[in-house]
Amino acid sequence: MAREHPMPDQSSAANGDWALVGEIVGVFGVRGEIKVRPLSDFAERFAIGATLYLGDHHEPHTVTKSRLRPGSHIIALSGIESANDAERLRGKSLTVPADALAALAPDQFYQHDVLGLRVEHVNGAPLGVIVDILSVGSNDLYVVRDEQTGAEHMLPAVKAFIKQIDLAAGVVRVEPIPGLFDDNAIETDEANPSNASDEPDEPDEPDAQT
């Protein structure tokens, strides 16, 4: 699952204009360098010479220095010359235009494509809506909220469970192990053939990226 989140403010909101690729979390040294929490799987976003857009007003800045580390990059931006300048940027977002997003393979998806999709068991039982995606370890976790109860369930974004992501229909079809969701609700739907849907033939499976 490729990461580059839509804007504004949170990863679960989208307006189609900007993609969130990082967040400034601190200052490094006294010459204006900043610590960035990357929210993109594409390291070239933070390479020297790349353009990043700062804050809610999307002010363009060029990356002038770059040290990429797992989980926390250290970069310098044009026009940010001192620790005081850098400190004022703490908490601000770094974005790129949405039309600059890289094309993905047919079985790969950006996180913002998946957020908001309905989740269904392969038997047709509704399981909820994806409201967040957590990047932990080698795989993402989909946070699926039951629209009836408000309960949230963690669904690993792996091929063993995710049988199809159908963006056109706005649905993710899954085959979870017992206990991940409300098994009673799933069993009730299985007992009612009128609610069941055919399992898709040769489903597209997501390639989970980090």
Along the chain, the helix and strand elements come as: EEEEEEHEHEEEEEEH
Helix-strand makeup class: mainly beta
Question: What share of the residues does DSSP label as strand, in percent?
Answer: 35-45%
β-strand number? 13
Shape: elongated
* Uncertain spans: 5-16, 193-205
Distance between the termini: 6 Å
* Continuous helix count: 3
Query: Percent helix among the residues?
Result: under 10%
Largest sheet: 6 strands, antiparallel, barrel
Q: What's the CATH first level of the largest domain?
A: Mainly Beta
CATH topology of the largest domain: Elongation Factor Tu (Ef-tu), domain 3
* CATH superfamily placement of the largest domain: RimM
* Overall number of domains: 2
Q: What's the pLDDT, averaged over the residues?
A: 81
Radius of gyration: 20 Å
Give the strand order, joined by hyphens, for the main sheet.
2-3-6-5-4-7
Which architecture of the largest domain does the CATH hierarchy give at level 2? Beta Barrel
